[in-house]
Structures are given as C-alpha cells and as structure tokens.
Amino acid sequence: MKSIHRFIYILALFVSLPFPVLAQVSDERTRQDAALQAGGEAEDIENPLYTDGDVLQFRLALDYEALLKDRGDERGYHPATLVYKNAAGEEEAVKLKVMVRGNHRRQTQTCRFPPLLLNFARKTTKGTPFEHVNKVKMVTHCLNEDYIHREFLVYKAYNLLTDKSFRVRLCRVEYEDVKSKRKEETKFAFLIEDDNEMARRNKGRIVPKELALGMEGTEMKSMATLAVFQYMIGNTDWSVPYRHNIKLLSLDSLRAPYPVPYDFDYSGIVAPPYAIPPPELGISSVRQRLYRGYDFPEPVYAEVISTFKAKRAAIYDLYRNFPYLEKSTQRMTLKFLDDFYEIITDPKDFDRQIVRVGQKNQKGYVVVKGLK
C-alpha cells in the first residue's frame, strides 16, 4: 500500500511542477537513457576500472597554473594528457579535459590542491582502463595524503554493506606541468564511479533533484542502514530532501528509491582540519557522533544491527590490511569503530543515542543553515 502512495505522491509532484522543471527532469531522463545505451552490454558486466584492486598509476600532464587558478563558479575545462602503462609495460597516452570540481574543497582556503573532474571522449579510450567511463570524479590529496586514504576506506566500508553504493579506485598520480612552472609531484588520489554508471550497474536510474523526497519516502531498510552508517563514521554532512551528498537510486517507479551516500570528508573518521560541524547541531567536533536519521521500526533496527555485526570483521580488516594507512590513524580509527560497536550492542545505549534521537528528529528536524 505504501508503494502505491509513493507512486501517487511522485505523480502529483510531476503534475504540480512548472514546465521548465518538467523539461529539466525529462532532459535528465533522456541523458540517463543515453548513458544506458552507451553502456550497451557493459550494463551486465562489472567495470574493471573499479573491480581491479591494484593501485592505478598514471601521469596527468597539463597547465597546472591555469587549472589551479580556475576555481570559481564559472570555471572551465583545460586540455590534458593522461599517460599510463599497458599490460605490456608500454606507455600509452589518452587525451582528455580536466576541470576543478567540488564545493568546499575547491576553495583555496580549504585545499591546496582541489578535487578534479576528468572528462574523456569515448572515441579516445577504447582498449584503455577508461573505456567504459566518460566523466570521472577524482579526489586528490588536498592537504595530506592520509586523508585520501581515510575517505577511500569509508567508501570501501559502505561497499561491504551494499552494492547500492559508489565504487572507488585508488590511484597514484604524477602531476606534470606542461609549462614547467610547477614542480612535479606524485600523490595518491582515488576515482569515484559516475552516478549513472552506479545506477546502470544496479539496473536503475538516478531520481532527479527536482522530485522532492525526504527520508520517509525512501526504501526503509537501506535508509536505516545509511543513517546508522553515517552515525558510525561520525558524519552529519548529508541530507536526503536537499540531496546533499546523497543520490536517490530508483529501481522501479512503483517502489521507494534507495539513498546512496558520497563525500565523507566531513566525517569524524576522516576528520581533516577544515571539517567543523555546523553550530545548529550543538556538537563541537566531527569526532562527536550525532544521529541524523529518523526513527525506524524495531525489526528494521534489529536487521540493521545484525548486518553491522556480521560485517564488523570485514570492516576492521579494511583498516588493518590497508598498507598505506598511517599506524596512528589505524589505531585511532579502530578505537573510533570500537566505540560505535559498543553503542549498537548495548540496548540502552542504542536506545539513548539512536532510537530516541531519531524520534526527536522525526518530530522536528534541525536543518543546517546552508541547506535551507
């Protein structure tokens, strides 16, 4: 019955939307249809760019002085060349365009080196590791490579919980300035699966932002899993109704969509120096956990807790076995995870820290100022 209500709700939204917004939604659907067709047979296979566990090494050559100055709202693409070694050990070059991306992290006061968007032309990538991609987000070292590893592992941890998640690939990038004005440097980075590619892999579509949906309009178990996961990593920097660091994945128009999170740099488990919680939330540090989900039925909570318990060893192994993580970070992270598992395995703590807070959120949700 709930699925029918959601369908009517979405239908009503379409009817009430003004024509320009409807046209925008239609354009987005057309774009996703094109992406599905472009994937062709690839929609039934895994993209080796993200299933290969090896560190992807390449050289990215362009005018970095021009790129790093172009961080404004009207920023553009810059021509670049990506050079990698094929299976025979021979160098191959791929032409592409590169743009600075992101919101907070593209600001000079936040990141010395901002995140990038790599834009490939499909006609130039056949037979390369980038054959099945078009636009790829690349998270760069910003201030320190250790934060790259921390955020990369958060994505990998969520992958353990569900396939309805963004996949990532760790990279080692040599940045070469074609103008020879900037010293070459080699740093870790990671690539993030494109929205439409993630949707295609799950045989679904991304719900347009114009269709307003809150937590109550999403698939219940996945929403509860996401909310508890965000609590685990100490992340309050997300919102379903504002689609802030959240995509909604629809597998069927008659069923509620699945929320898919991304961008975890403001979480306590990553904790870069620029990550400061908004004053509206009443916490002084991102290391201080605060549940931001709604309340869920007891059987749903029980199933979610069971999932987290079942995946505990695998999550811990991610941090214990990752060779590039600093030992001090590893110890700090495992202790942070210990604290979380103590809470979810103690019924009183779980009720106080999550259930009651979820009930309070459902009655009157605190909206962060920048999202209003």
UniProtKB/TrEMBL annotation:
Protein species of origin: Pontibacter saemangeumensis
Keywords, comma-separated and alphabetical: Signal
Signal peptide start-end: 1-23
Protein name stated in the entry: DUF3857 domain-containing protein
Keyword check for Signal: yes
